């Protein structure tokens, strides 16, 4: 007998395989967090008299050993064990006997997996914030470095007005600030403790949920036990929104990169070893990195919809298919973090073309500049507009190609400092320190 819940009957092998699904593989990623949850839960059990001090000592010591084994990749969910929760409890009981059998009082795998997921998501969100921050700094640095290099701005993909590399890089940097506002909202919703909701309806034991909330470094708790269970799916949904927000920014940037790398634009270039070749065309240097990123990030934008479809119309209470949400969220984090790292790496190696606007096809970029000069000299806008239009039609348009934009957020006044302050403010709102302190105290 290998199931926590098994009494006498053996479950059909087909049913077991179908229901366990990818849990053995995916749960490994939550293993350290499962142990943290148990470290907190058992301390709480002892505090309310459901575990004696000697048992607690044994349990805590062995849980910490398992934690270290997990850290050292020396942990596996055995073939006939259902999930990480069963594996950890089984290891404990195998190694320390009776005391191991006591850790599950006042708990169900339903709130156990809920808390594991919240701890895991918190950890992943912290990585996302950190990688986004790194990419942000890279973009701001490039924006400052190339602030005087002009770039054609397009509307309708038609040559429109002067832009600059300062604006282009800085725009994506500012986009990431707003994306992290979304991540902050997801963080806040994630950072509430569901432990103690048990199967979804609480327990007749006098659990101290405030205690586990503090031990695990949560900001507060999901108070209502029924709502705590509803957090499965809801948490994933808001996280999916946040990840998809970053993904949308990256996908747009990746598309710009592919376009700007095309010979018809040739605005940017990369060292040859960062591009990929063709098996038939010997001259090719393809932007495959940005294409894969565009694809992954476009796919990530389907995530909120995937989560919604899987959970829409589920009544309150636990349902087994909630397990499948792991298959959506876990790889999404991996993909997004990969993309953030690759974007930073590529941008560390980007070169920009400094003479783009010398090409005569960009002459008309300056039509509005000329109209505005005329307005500054006293001509009403509509008359100035008409005169420049007539000059263009007659082939008499010879603009002075200097730009003088001074207002907030324009070519000559990028406000990268304000954008950086906004970023610093969002990042300082994440209480990573509190979380890290709580975890290191638990495993100490
Ligand atoms: N693997 C399960 C999940 O992710 C763990 C909880 C199982 N609970 C249950 N009532 N069968 O949801």
TrEMBL record:
UniProt GO cellular component terms? cytosol
Q: What is its EC number?
A: 4.3.2.1
According to UniProt, the reaction catalysed is: 2-(N(omega)-L-arginino)succinate = fumarate + L-arginine
Matches recorded under PROSITE patterns? FUMARATE_LYASES
> Carries keyword DNA-binding?
no
Residue span, Fumarate lyase N-terminal domain: 8-300
Query: Is Magnesium given among the entry's keywords?
Result: no
Q: Check the record and name the Gene3D superfamilies matching this protein.
A: Fumarase/aspartase (C-terminal domain) (1.10.40.30), Fumarase/aspartase (Central domain) (1.20.200.10), Fumarase/aspartase (N-terminal domain) (1.10.275.10)
Keyword set, alphabetical order: Amino-acid biosynthesis, Arginine biosynthesis, Lyase
User: Which pathway is it part of?
Assistant: Amino-acid biosynthesis; L-arginine biosynthesis; L-arginine from L-ornithine and carbamoyl phosphate: step 3/3
Q: Which GO terms describe its molecular function?
A: argininosuccinate lyase activity
Q: Which GO terms describe its biological process?
A: L-arginine biosynthetic process via ornithine
Instruction: Fetch the NCBIfam families from UniProt.
Output: argH (TIGR00838)
- PANTHER family per the record? ARGININOSUCCINATE LYASE
- Could you tell me what this protein is called? Argininosuccinate lyase
User: From which organism does this entry originate?
Assistant: Mucilaginibacter terrigena
Question: Lineage in the entry?
Answer: Bacteria, Pseudomonadati, Bacteroidota, Sphingobacteriia, Sphingobacteriales
């Amino acid at each position: 007998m290998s199931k926590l819940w098994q009494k006498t009957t053996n479950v059909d092998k087909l049913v077991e395989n179908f229901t366990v699904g990818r849990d053995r593989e995916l749960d490994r990623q939550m293993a350290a967090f499962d142990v943290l949850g148990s470290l907190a839960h058992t301390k709480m059990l002892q505090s309310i008299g459901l575990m004696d001090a000697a048992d607690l000592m044994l349990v805590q010591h062995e849980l910490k050993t398992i934690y270290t084994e997990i850290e050292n990749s020396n942990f596996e969910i055995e073939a006939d064990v259902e999930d990480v929760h069963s594996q950890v409890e089984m290891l404990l009981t195998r190694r320390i006997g009776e005391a191991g059998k006591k850790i599950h009082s006042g708990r169900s795998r339903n709130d156990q997996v809920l808390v594991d997921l919240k701890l895991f998501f918190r950890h992943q969100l912290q990585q996302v914030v950190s990688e986004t921050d790194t990419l942000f700094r890279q973009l701001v640095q490039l924006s400052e470095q190339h602030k005087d290099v002009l770039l054609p701005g397009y509307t309708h993909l038609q040559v429109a007005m002067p832009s600059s590399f300062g604006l282009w890089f800085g725009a994506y940097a500012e986009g990431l600030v707003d994306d992290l506002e979304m991540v902050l909202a997801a963080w806040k919703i994630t950072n509430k403790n569901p432990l103690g909701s048990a199967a979804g309806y609480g327990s007749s034991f006098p659990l101290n949920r405030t205690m586990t909330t503090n031990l695990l470094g949560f900001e507060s708790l999901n108070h209502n036990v029924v709502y705590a269970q509803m957090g499965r799916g809801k948490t994933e949904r808001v996280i999916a929104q946040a990840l998809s927000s970053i993904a949308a920014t990256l996908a747009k940037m990746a598309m710009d990169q592919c376009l700007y790398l095309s010979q018809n634009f040739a605005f940017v270039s990369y060292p040859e070893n960062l591009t990929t070749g063709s098996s038939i065309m010997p001259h090719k240097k393809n932007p495959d990195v940005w294409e894969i990123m565009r694809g992954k990030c476009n796919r990530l934008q389907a995530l909120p919809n995937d989560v919604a479809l899987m959970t829409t119309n589920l009544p309150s209470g636990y349902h087994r298919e909630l397990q499948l949400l792991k298959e959506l969220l876990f790889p999404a984090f991996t993909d997004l973090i990969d993309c953030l790292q690759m974007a930073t790496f590529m941008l560390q190696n980007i070169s920009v073309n400094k003479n783009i606007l010398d090409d005569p096809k960009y002459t008309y970029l300056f039509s509005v500049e000329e109209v505005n000069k005329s307005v500054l000299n006293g001509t009403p806008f509509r008359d100035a507009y008409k005169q420049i239009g007539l000059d263009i039609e007659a082939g008499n348009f010879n603009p002075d190609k200097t730009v003088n934009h001074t207002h907030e957020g324009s070519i000559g006044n990028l406000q990268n400092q304000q954008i950086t302050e906004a970023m610093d403010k969002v990042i300082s709102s994440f209480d990573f320190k509190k979380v890290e302190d709580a975890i290191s105290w638990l495993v100490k």
